[in-house]
Specification:
- It contains five helices and four strands, in the order αββααββαα.
- It is an alpha+beta fold.
- The protein has one domain.
- Strands 1-2-3-4 form a four-stranded antiparallel β-sheet.
- The longest helix is centred in the middle third of the chain and has 23 residues.
- The radius of gyration is 25 Å and the shape is globular.
- The termini are far apart.
């Protein structure tokens, strides 16, 4: 997913930089280059270095969690979030205007949603999987049910009814 994100951003910068717009679904979805120095919905645009540091922390945390996860669905969901976070982090670290100040390349535009990219899609899909299917914790095998016979009767008690 990370490679797809980076390749799509290279394509977008190369093909859409001149203001070129590619209509995908008439009036609903198109490809148009946008540079976002903020977070989702362009919030916190003046805090790009702080967002980059937070993204580094999130990536380190996710790597540790993914390495310990045993549930395949959890691994996939967290890996999608990790790939998306790293994809956008690469932009923040290496793109202009400079180190830790770079703008994230967005290029998928919709009539009803802010412009986004493949990394944003990976984060969203991973988060939705976590929300819908839940953070499934490993379950332990059920213990056999205990009965009064298996617990045993103490001295001086009778298991028979009077």
């Amino acid at each position: 997913m990370l490679a797809l994100d980076q390749a799509s951003k290279v394509w977008a910068v190369d093909r859409l930089s001149d203001g070129h717009r590619v209509e995908v679904i008439d009036g609903q979805l198109w490809l148009a280059l946008s540079r976002n120095t903020g977070s989702a919905f362009s919030l916190f645009s003046s805090f790009t270095p702080i967002l980059a540091v937070i993204a580094i922390g999130v990536a380190v945390f996710l790597v540790r969690v993914v390495r310990r996860a045993r549930d395949p669905l959890l691994v996939v969901a967290l890996s999608l979030v990790l790939a998306g976070a790293v994809g956008n982090l690469i932009d923040r670290v290496f793109r202009s205007p400079g180190f830790m100040k770079g703008a994230v390349i967005d290029f998928i535009a919709s009539k009803h949603w802010p412009t986004f990219n493949v990394a944003d899609s990976a984060i969203t899909i991973g988060a939705l999987v976590l929300l819908v299917w839940g953070w499934r914790r490993p379950t332990h095998p059920a213990r056999p049910a205990t009965t009064s016979r298996s617990r045993g009767a103490g001295p001086g008690t009778s298991e028979s009814s009077p």
